[in-house]
From TrEMBL:
Root EC class: lyase
SUPFAM superfamilies attached to this UniProt entry: Cryptochrome/photolyase FAD-binding domain, Cryptochrome/photolyase, N-terminal domain
GO biological process, one term: nucleobase-containing compound metabolic process
Record's keyword annotation contains Nucleus: no
Protein name, UniProt field: Deoxyribodipyrimidine photo-lyase
Cofactor remark from the record: Binds 1 FAD per subunit.
EC number of the protein: 4.1.99.3
Span of domain Photolyase/cryptochrome alpha/beta: 2-131
Endpoints of the signal sequence: none
InterPro entries: Crypto/Photolyase_FAD-like_sf, Crypto/Photolyase_N_sf, Cryptochr/Photolyase_FAD-bd, Cryptochrome/DNA_photolyase_1, DNA_photolyase_1_CS_C, DNA_photolyase_N, Rossmann-like_a/b/a_fold
One Gene Ontology MF term: FAD binding
Record site: Electron transfer via tryptophanyl radical: W322, W376, W399
Length: 480
């Protein structure tokens, strides 16, 4: 039997999935596998919120595959070992996957590709998760971009239009039984883990009720959300995206993070809206696609600087005088009990729903880094654990942007004032009231007093930054 393996990772969909399509077109028997790999060197374990999303996304994917005649195989362990065993079990002739861009992931993929080809298998990877491969976008001097605007202009002006999305395979060739390569055993079903045995869902306590209320997960839900955005939210996007109380953002980020929808599908759906829309739609579509461009830029950075989540992009910040560890202040920030309403509302939105409005993310991050003088990596790790869209590229790049240590970063002396931000973007305090019940009734409120003075802490942050002034900005060289 001509058997191919399709190894899925952050591409949990059946449409516009080039690896899945290649496997379906070149085999009599297709083995689709997801490997829970939290043991390979350098692979970052998922956070609690993304584990919750992954569980439900795999359930949705298994149903989609079954409807096409296939089956999702679940295995856990170091991916290299798991795949070698699976190749031996199935006598596979080929293995396909869609590319990832982190350093450890690329090393793992290269190792598996080398093993497969040395064993006589066809091994092929595909572009499926970014519109522009990171190594193809270069400055005139041949170096990676470190500023967003020229990067995005280069993408849209100097590169081919992103390819059209691919259809899902009409059917998945699948044999319910396999014959072991050795031992003369009779044909038997291919073993698969029970998803529940992975313990991805929280139990003690189960904090996921708010997430379940907030999100519908899976490929179908991702496309429904995209259509809702195009039909009802896109015309308001440019003017309303910074107002946290308004529902005008796309809310596609967790679906993109797990690959339930591809950036190619988003690009071409927005292009279709532009073609049939007016000047208002055009303006808003350009603004929205620039946000998709920030995701592309983040992966560009991650590819060239794989330690983006742990090392200052600007090495001057290696000498930054972070304040002494303050567990009480950190806990207040994490729990939304700082006494600073916009920060607290955002942190409570995060805890309740697994997401936070982007404007408020910047304010909450700035407060942690600059008012509390807590290292940006502490905040990045907290978001990694609590966001359903915790993305290995965007999360790290955005935290470094706010910190001032990153590519195209906000200057460190830009300290978001949470009070002014709330007055400007939530003037009726709708967002504050939505998440701060006690704030809504101040006469009977137990809302905490501010844990820090905003003016004094801003001055302290600027004084700390002054210690770095005079040192030339030093961008770390990209990985070879």
């Amino acid at each position: 039997m001509n058997t191919s393996i399709v190894w899925l990772r952050d591409d949990l969909r059946v449409s516009d999935n080039p690896a899945l399509l290649a496997g379906a077109e070149t085999s009599d028997n297709l083995v689709v596998v997801y490997v829970l790999d939290q043991e390979s060197p350098g692979i970052r374990p998922l956070g609690g919120a993304t584990k919750w999303w992954l569980h439900h996304s795999l359930e949705a994917l298994a149903d989609k595959l079954q409807r096409l005649g296939g089956r999702l195989i679940l295995r856990h362990g170091p991916a290299h070992d798991v795949l070698r065993e699976l190749i031996a079990e199935t006598s596979a002739h080929a293995i396909f996957w869609n590319r990832r861009y982190g350093g450890a992931e690329r090393e793992l993929d290269a190792t598996i590709k080398s093993f497969a080809r040395a064993s006589g298998l066809k091994a092929q990877s595909f572009q499926a998760s970014v519109l522009f491969e990171p190594w193809t976008v270069r400055t005139g001097g041949g170096t990676p971009y470190t500023v967003f605007t020229p990067f995005w202009k280069s993408c849209i002006n100097n590169h081919d239009i992103p390819r059209m999305p691919l259809d899902a395979p009409p059917v998945l060739p699948h044999s319910p039984l396999i014959t072991r390569a050795h031992g003369g055993q009779e044909a038997e079903p291919l073993a698969s883990d029970d998803l529940a045995s992975w313990h991805l869902l929280p139990t003690a306590p189960d904090w996921s009720a708010g997430l379940a209320h907030r999100w519908t997960i899976g490929e179908n839900a991702a496309h429904e959300r995209l259509e809702d955005f195009i039909d009802t939210r896109l015309p308001q996007y440019a003017d309303g995206r910074d107002a946290p109380a308004r529902l005008v953002t796309s809310e596609l980020s967790p679906h993109l993070r797990f690959g339930e929808i591809s950036p190619f599908q988003v690009w071409h759906r927005v292009e279709a809206a532009k073609a049939h829309g007016d000047a208002v739609v055009l303006k808003n579509a350009i603004k929205f696609m620039a946000e998709v461009g920030w995701r592309e830029f983040s992966y560009h950075l991650l590819y060239h600087w794989p330690d983006l989540a742990t090392v200052n992009f600007d090495s001057r910040f290696d000498a930054f005088p972070w304040g002494e560890a303050n567990p009480e202040a950190l806990a207040a920030w994490q729990q939304g009990r700082t006494g600073i309403p916009l920060v607290d509302a955002g942190m409570r939105e995060l805890w309740q729903s697994g997401t936070m409005h982007n404007r408020v993310r910047m304010v909450a991050a700035s407060f942690l880094i600059k008012n509390l003088l807590i290292d940006w990596r502490v905040g990045e790790q907290w978001f990694w654990d609590t966001l359903v869209d915790a993305d290995p590229a965007s999360n790290a790049a955005s935290w470094q942007w706010v910190a001032g240590s990153g590519a195209d970063a906000a200057p460190y002396f830009r300290v978001f004032n949470p009070v002014l931000q709330a007055d400007k973007f939530d003037p009726q305090h709708e967002y504050l009231h939505r998440y701060l019940g006690e704030y809504e009734h101040p006469l009977v409120s137990d809302y905490p007093l501010p844990i820090i003075d905003l003016v004094e802490s801003r001055n302290r942050a600027l004084a700390a930054f002054a210690q770095l002034q005079g040192i030339p900005r030093a961008i770390r060289p990209p990985s070879p």
